Amino acid sequence: MRVAIVTVGDELLVGDTVNTNAAWLGERLHERGVDVERVTTLPDKVADIARVVNEYRAAYDAVLVTGGVGPTHDDMTMDGVAAAFGREVVESQEVLDWLEEAGGYAADDLAEGTADIPRGARLLKNPEGVAPGCVIGNVYVLPGVPTEMKAMFETVADDFAGEVKHVATVVADEPESALLDRIADLRDEFDVTVGSYPGDSVRVKIQGEEAVVEAAATWLRERVELAEVEQ
Q: Residue 49: which of 81, 22, 82, 90 has the closest Cα?
């Protein structure tokens, strides 16, 4: 399964808010064997959201959009997603019924726009808040507040599945540039995916079928200077 993540918010682009949602979703989807092939951050602009969602919904099995959901002046995501499908944003009776049942909110208690989702979209209930999410086609719209986003994702997590790859990590106490030949040999010798991530040491991540990955990790450990964490 191939997925794109779209995070929406001017505050993400200028660094006022750290984009933890993208990292968390990427990790959870990877755990489920899903290939995350795009992570894109957009401003609170309907046209930008509509353009990217329209492109990604055609290119990927699913698109996860977070942020910009709610009734305030800068919450543009529902409008952008609706525009990508050529639909209107309308007040949903299903949302109103859920808010009344779950939170005791009468329609008159709600800010204008709270119950608005794209016409024909399926409601995603918010276990941790008021703003609803929705599913339209293969696009999932989630809130931007991390606690709300995480709780809502868990209600649809079973929609996302793929082949879970076995992972082994080798931590080398050598410069990344010095490892290039051995990493190339590793790729030639074994049918695995390899990534290298430098820092105080170099973390080499090996993914694939379990027996092959473990053999590849053993092969590499025998050929590099291991960091103390590996010894």
A: 81
Task: Check the CA dihedral 95-96-99-101 and report its sign.
Answer: negative
CA distance 146 to 18: 11
CATH number of 166-230: 3.30.1370
Q: How many Å apart are CA 122 and CA 207, to the nearest integer? A: 36
Answer whether 223's CB lies under 8 Å from 189's CB: no
Give the tokens for residue 195: 């990534």
Distance CA 27, CA 17 (A): 19
What's this model's pTM, rounded to 2 decimal places? 0.87
What is the amino acid identity at position 19?
N
**pLDDT tens figures, 197-228:** 999 999 999 999 999 999 999 999 999 999 98
From CA 73, how far away is CA 203, in angstroms rounded? Answer: 44
Question: What does the alpha-carbon distance between residue 83 and residue 92 come to, in Å, rounded to a whole number?
Answer: 17
Fold of 2-159: Molybdenum Cofactor Biosythetic Enzyme; Chain A (3.40.980)
CA dihedral 181, 187, 192, 195 (to 10 degrees): 30
- For residues 33 and 162, the answer to whether their CB atoms sit within 8 Å is yes
Comparing CA positions, the residue from 77, 158, 151 lying closest to residue 118 is: 77
The full set of domain ranges for the chain reads 2-159, 166-230
Question: Nearest Cα to 67, choosing from 128, 148, 123?
Answer: 148
Dihedral-angle region of residue 18 (phi above 0 means left; psi in -120 to 50 means alpha; beta otherwise): beta
- 120-166 pLDDT, tens digit per residue, is 999 999 999 888 999 999 999 999 999 999 999 999 999 999 988 89
